[in-house]
Design a protein that fits this description.
Helix content: 25-40%
Structural class: alpha/beta
Largest sheet: 9 strands, mixed
Number of strands: 16
Strand content: 15-25%
Length: 359
């Protein structure tokens, strides 16, 4: 099952709106077929593994990181494919919460005479597909906040200089994070200040670049910005409030930018919860947020941050630097969002800390 989970991870950032699934087919102690969900979500992991196993799949055991699907979509149900292949046993990590599946896949297998076991490495499987589950159960993508700061939590000097707070090893790791997320999101302030490209610049991995999203309630992003200039090569979406000038919207669309309009919140600013729901409807399951301080504060205030990936350099700027978050109304300690540290890694002198939201 751990091998199936490792195969599934290959699909992260590439298979949305589908879950990332891995499958290993074993017979008489030998692996005879392996598969994982392919880019765009098709073919599914089980189909790939069975194709590699061929006729040897009869009487074998299939280890699958998520319940095989039971509904007809662009491909037939994987549960039926496993039965037709003559697999004797299916070991699944967990049930699929999608109401189109949710136990029906296991039922089809059992009706077809397949022995079914559920629950092996369930916690690991749930963690890996947390984005898919968030979209299905909460109606929004999983939000991972990524930041790079000094020891005292500053993201830049007082005049905005931030390149480079962390070293080369940390920056390469950050680019790999982009490759494993469906989209990377920034606020309009960061877009104006840095004019970023938000692509994956690791050798040979440009094709793994995510969708680039700018939260821009008033459409301040210049048409000459890097994100707009190459929007036909790498998808660029702008999330804005309803009611902006139609000519401005048309200009973005002519450049290949997708404009997503959402209702304004009570204060007249963009409603982030509604924005994330709109992004989930477009299929996104995992979004990496890369700043800046204003967007970080708004997401924290709305309790929309699920995970934090914190790159920390061994330097100190001091109180005149720009902090990782703008104020968001925490007056008492029990009002502060709480996170649990899962991981601490040394990156050639920088520290990488990974946190998940405390439940």
């Amino acid at each position: 099952m751990l091998a199936a989970l490792n195969l599934a991870r290959r699909g992260l950032g590439r298979v949305w709106p589908n879950p990332a699934v891995g499958c290993v087919v074993v017979k008489q102690g030998a692996v005879i077929g392996r598969g994982w969900t392919q880019p765009g979500g098709r073919p599914h992991a089980e189909t790939e593994a069975l194709a590699r196993a061929g006729a040897e799949a009869r009487g074998a055991t299939a280890y699958v990181s998520l319940e095989p699907c039971a509904h007809h979509g662009k491909t037939p149900p994987c549960a039926d494919a496993l039965v037709t292949a003559g697999v004797a046993r299916v070991v699944a990590a967990m049930e699929d919460p999608d109401r189109r599946v949710s136990g029906r896949g296991f039922e089809r297998l059992r009706r077809g005479g397949v022995d079914v076991s559920v629950g092996v490495c369930a916690e690991e499987a749930a963690d890996m597909n947390a984005g898919f589950f968030s979209r299905i159960l909460a109606g929004r993508p999983l939000i991972t906040l990524k930041t790079a700061t000094t020891l005292d939590g500053m993201i830049a000097t007082h005049d905005g200089e931030s390149q480079w707070i962390t070293g080369e090893h940390a920056r390469r790791t950050a680019h790999m994070l982009r490759a494993t997320h469906d989209a990377v999101m920034i606020g309009s302030g960061t877009a104006l200040a840095d004019d970023p490209r938000l692509d994956c610049r690791l050798p040979g991995m440009h094709a793994r670049s995510p969708v680039r999203i700018v939260i821009d309630g008033r459409l301040r992003l210049p048409l000459t910005s890097a994100l707009v200039r190459d929007a036909r090569e790498l998808p660029t979406w702008i999330v804005t409030i309803e009611g902006n000038v139609s000519e401005r919207i048309d200009a973005y669309r002519l450049c290949g930018v997708e404009i997503i309009e959402t209702p304004a919140g009570p204060s007249g600013t963009l409603d982030l919860a509604a924005a994330l729901q709109a992004l989930a409807k477009r299929g996104l399951t995992r979004i990496l947020v890369e700043g800046g301080a204003t967007l970080t504060a708004a997401l924290m205030q709305a309790r929309l941050v699920d995970r934090v990936v914190w790159f920390r350099a061994s330097s100190i700027i001091g109180g005149d630097g720009i902090p990782v978050s703008a104020p968001f109304g925490v007056a008492k300690l029990d009002q502060a969002p709480r996170f649990v540290r899962r991981r601490l890694v040394d990156l050639a002198g920088d520290a990488l800390e990974t946190y998940v939201r405390a439940r």
